Amino acid sequence: MASLLRPTLRTAAARALHTQTAPLPSTTTNALSLIRSQPSQYVVASLAGRKYLLTPRDLLTVPRLKDVKVGDVLKLSDIHEIGSREFTVRGNPVIPSEQVRVEATVVEHTKGRMEVIFKKKRRKGYERTVYHKQTYTRLRIGPIDIADIPSS
């Protein structure tokens, strides 16, 4: 009975076939070309003071951006990391904007749910109720364009 619970050598060998290791790229240009060849990519970018993990066609909600209108296209310049399923390139601290280009389109300006803030001071008869809705901007992330920079 105990032999049925242990994985056999055959299943361990079958698992090893699926986890092949790829050769490591020697330069950043080679690493970016390997990431470009993968079917899906992601980026870690800073926007409105926070880092977000983004993929193409994501809908991102950030605190209100005051100087943009609906339909404006924003270029994300602070990209900290780009990767795919098998490879990742991290910037030091950011990846140069010539190598990776990501754009976000402003979809709407919206408000969050109603927040109720109740203020009270003991034994003074002071009670106030403040209602508040936080404002947000929603962005649609465009395609991730990895530049094809020839190695020199």
Automatic annotation (TrEMBL):
Q: Which GO terms describe its biological process?
A: translation
GO CC, one annotated term: mitochondrial large ribosomal subunit
InterPro entries from the UniProt entry: bL21-like, bL21-like_sf, Ribosomal_bL21
Q: Which UniProt keywords apply?
A: Ribonucleoprotein, Ribosomal protein
Task: Name a GO molecular-function annotation.
Answer: structural constituent of ribosome
Any matching Pfam family:
Ribosomal_L21p
Task: Write down the SUPFAM superfamilies for this protein, in alphabetical order.
Answer: L21p-like (SSF141091)
The answer to whether UniProt assigns keyword Ribonucleoprotein to this entry is yes
- Which family does the similarity line name? Belongs to the bacterial ribosomal protein bL21 family.
- Please state what the protein is called: Large ribosomal subunit protein bL21m
Source organism per UniProt: Lentinus tigrinus ALCF2SS1-6
Q: Lineage, please?
A: Eukaryota, Fungi, Dikarya, Basidiomycota, Agaricomycotina
